[in-house]
Structure formats: structure tokens, C-alpha cells
């Protein structure tokens, strides 16, 4: 687990709850998208980007999101979602996730979200601000 924390300095702790299990006895697939959303907001908070995004006209919007399930997770468990950035462009970036199961001591799910900066007033894509770009580059990893 220490290797995971070293690899992902930005990580989010998620406690699996009973209500997230499905009829087959494991965490329902939709729960991972909630976990990733929680990790995404936590990433913005931990890196200080949430305050950079205080301008209500420019906002990050999901273009698409993806999950790959590697191992079923059951209650009780604690997951740690490691987050990092790839593919930074002028108006978009990709946030990647790895979910580590504490009980299994293994990566159980991976995923990503393609995020586009969007001007809420004009309804158009907008460039990533210099402040935001500087922070994103600190957490960028090659794939």
C-alpha cells in the first residue's frame, strides 16, 4: 500500500458502504463513477485548483468518462483512489484514476475522465488558464 501512496501523492479515501452493493454481492459498477467524481473534486481541493476555478464563467466539464473493472469489491472495504493528469491540451486534459482495495491489497478498478474547459457564458470551449495549467503540469504523468 505504501507503494501506491508514493505513486499517487494525490489520493482519496473511500469507504465502501453496504448500499453500494448489487444483487450479485459486489459494488455496483455505477458506484465507481461516483468514487471517481469524489476523487476529481478532492484532487481540485488538494491541489488548490478549486480556488483557481472560482471564476464562474470558466468551468471544467466532463466530455466522457470510462472505467475498467479488474477485481470485484465487496463490503466492507476501503478504497484509495489515486489521481493524476495526462494529455494536457490548450483547452482540455485527462484525469486518470486507479482504485486500490485495502482488503485485497490490489488495484481493483482503473478509469479516466476527459475534461474540457467550458465558458458558461458563451457556451464555447475555453483555454485552460495559466494558473490552472501550472498546477496540472505538476501532476502530469506519461502514459
TrEMBL record:
Signal sequence segment: none
An MF annotation (GO) of this entry: hydrolase activity
Top EC class for this record: hydrolase
InterPro entries on file: 4-hydroxybenzoyl-CoA_TE (IPR050563), HotDog_dom_sf (IPR029069)
Enzyme nomenclature, EC number: 3.1.2.-
Pfam families per UniProt: 4HBT_2
PANTHER family for the chain: 4-HYDROXYBENZOYL-COA THIOESTERASE FAMILY MEMBER (PTHR31793), ACYL-COA THIOESTER HYDROLASE, YBGC_YBAW FAMILY (PTHR31793:SF40)
Name of the featured protein: Thioesterase family protein
Protein species of origin: Pseudoalteromonas spongiae
